[in-house]
Amino acid sequence: MGDKKSDLSQALREALDFERKGSEFYVQLGIDTKQPLAKRLFYNLAKQEIDHIVRIEEIFDALKRNTPWPEFKAKDIREIEQEMKKIFGSLDKKARAQEPDNKDGYQLAINLEKQGYEMYRKFSGKATDEREQRFFSSLAEEEKNHLTALDNVYYFLTQSEEWLSMDESRVWNWMAT
């Protein structure tokens, strides 16, 4: 591994680029999607990717000023689930049951989240101090939570048997009622 600061800066640049592309992707996916629950999920994910951008930029700022990093903790999956539950509850049954469109978009989104999860795990594994490790681990955890949200909404909309047989800790059972 090279210079510690330049390695971290490179990882942060890659993360920033990834999150910018992700937020743009989710906004476009939201625009292109007609199914109301999926549309709201995509916009919600875009908002969360923008939050990641802000956090990464704050760390870049701290590095430039040589000041302590802000402390970050991964959003708990229950927070994301609660946001989606609120959206789900605001939609009538007809809107919830509307056939999913843009199925290719779901697959691209799932692949994007898997890619982000792996990238952040790699960065966490290469971290040279605890704060870097915690930061990249928290981003990996959030990408994993995004994947869980995508899985639940997609499988709910497609009424897939696979969803019903998934690990119970990942399934949002309230969607089945």
From TrEMBL:
Gene3D superfamilies: 1.20.1260.10. Residues 12-153 form the Rubrerythrin diiron-binding domain. InterPro entries: Ferritin-like, Ferritin-like_SF, Rr_diiron-bd_dom. One of its GO terms (molecular function) is metal ion binding. This is Rubrerythrin diiron-binding domain-containing protein. It comes from candidate division TA06 bacterium DG_26. Signal peptide: none annotated.
